[in-house]
């Protein structure tokens, strides 16, 4: 409900930024007159955000000795996307993604290793996409105002910190073990959990299995490299939505290239604040960046349509996929009880 409220406020504030009396009826008129082929490509590209994450996870799982099918990969990607969109964290979907992996028969220790490795590759892919953006259109470094660059630089710092932190946890079992033991100790002190010593003994066995899974995954470099590129494709599939929408409303291909670089920097800046889907911050950064190459009215129009497709529609479809997956896999749990 908080996410829906934030979404409504964000959309209203964006519309108010337009010159004149811009309205939803005007937006509808633009969509009706848009090139439907480019608009369809924008929609398909947004779904790539779910598909390529699923492919990355399936690739890492395969390197760990667990083969899952395409539909299960889509479910993993949809779970991560939906819950990341409604929780104040970019990694809010990871626990639910892990939940579905376990339901499909993957041991928890392997799931932990898979999730951590994919988080490392995901953050590296975002940083790599930023470098690609500068190569595509170097002027992107001048496309934002100083306030926007505070978000972008902070987001970049957060991503580098996360990549380093996840890597340290992945490669050093003691770090993860200390974190989990601290959580178990805290839950025991506040009387939420009992038999903490027994759980700590079980944790040692779990960590042994986790270490084996990490060595197996990192030993298959071809799977790791392939998963990295799937993460990179995931990033650009979302970024290209803006480019396709621009072409759909009458823009020219070469004039739309800067928008790819701008949208990439916007994605980096979205990690600067713990807000569901970066709402508000992303909208501000998109408007600010787009206005460096477009008029204010055009920037508002492009922001509303591309954001609507790449985030809101994609999140709704992910939620539907999660509901279906939950019904299919979790109903057996309730049947047993």
Write up this protein.
This protein has 337 residues and is mainly α. Helix content is 81%, strand content 0%. Helix 7 (146-171) crosses helix 11. The protein is elongated.
Q: What structural class should be given to the helix and strand makeup?
A: mainly alpha
N-end to C-end Cα span:
30 Å
Q: Mean pLDDT, rounded to whole units?
A: 88
Residues in β-strands, percent: under 5%
Main sheet summary: none
Radius of gyration: 21 Å
What's the number of extended β-strand segments?
Answer: 0
Give the % helix: over 70%
Low-pLDDT runs: none
**How many helical stretches?**
13
Oligomer: single chain
> What's the overall geometry?
elongated
Task: Write the element-wise H/E pattern from the N-terminal end onward.
Answer: HHHHHHHHHHHHH
Keywords summarizing the entry:
single chain, 337 residues, mainly alpha, 13 helices, 81% helix, 0% strand, elongated
Brief summary:
By secondary structure, this protein is mainly α. It has helices at 2-16, 24-33, 36-63, 70-86, 94-103, 108-136, 146-171, 173-189, 196-219, 221-248, 253-269, 281-290, 296-336.
Topology:
Blueprint lengths: L1 H15 L7 H10 L2 H28 L6 H17 L7 H10 L4 H29 L9 H26 L1 H17 L6 H24 L1 H28 L4 H17 L11 H10 L5 H41 L1
Helix pairs in contact: 3-4, 3-6, 3-10, 3-13, 4-5, 4-13, 5-6, 6-7, 6-9, 6-10, 6-11, 7-8, 7-11, 8-9, 10-11, 10-13, 11-12, 12-13
């Amino acid at each position: 409900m908080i996410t829906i409220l934030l979404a409504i406020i964000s959309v209203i504030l964006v519309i108010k930024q337009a010159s004149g009396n811009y309205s939803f009826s005007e937006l509808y008129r633009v969509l009706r007159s848009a090139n439907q082929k480019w608009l369809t490509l924008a929609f398909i590209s947004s779904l790539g955000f779910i598909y390529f994450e699923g492919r990355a996870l399936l690739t890492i799982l395969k390197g760990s000795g667990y083969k899952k099918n395409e539909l299960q990969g889509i479910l993993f990607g949809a779970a991560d996307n939906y819950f990341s969109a409604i929780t104040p964290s970019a990694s809010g979907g990871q626990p639910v993604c892990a939940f579905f992996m376990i339901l499909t028969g993957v041991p928890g220790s392997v799931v932990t290793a898979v999730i951590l490795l994919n988080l490392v590759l995901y953050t590296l892919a975002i940083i790599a996409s930023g470098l690609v953006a500068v190569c595509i259109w170097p002027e992107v470094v001048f496309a934002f105002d100083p306030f926007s660059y505070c978000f972008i630089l902070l987001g970049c710092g957060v991503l580098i910190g996360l990549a380093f932190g996840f890597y340290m946890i992945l490669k050093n079992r003691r770090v993860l073990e200390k974190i989990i033991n601290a959580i178990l100790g805290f839950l025991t002190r506040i009387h939420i959990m009992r038999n903490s010593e027994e759980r700590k003994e079980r944790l040692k066995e779990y960590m042994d299995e986790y270490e084996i899974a990490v060595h197996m995954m990192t030993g298959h470099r071809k799977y790791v490299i392939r998963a990295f590129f799937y993460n990179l494709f995931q990033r650009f599939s979302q970024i290209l939505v803006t480019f396709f929408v621009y072409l759909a409303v009458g823009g020219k291909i070469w004039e739309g290239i800067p928008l790819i670089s701008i949208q990439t920097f916007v994605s980096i800046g979205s990690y600067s604040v713990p807000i569901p889907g970066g709402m508000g911050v992303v909208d501000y950064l998109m408007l600010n960046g787009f206005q460096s190459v477009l008029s204010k009215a055009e920037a508002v129009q492009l922001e509303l349509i591309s954001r609507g497709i790449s985030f809101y529609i994609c999140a709704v479809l992910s939620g539907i996929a999660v509901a279906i997956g939950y019904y299919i896999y979790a109903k057996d749990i309730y049947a047993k009880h």
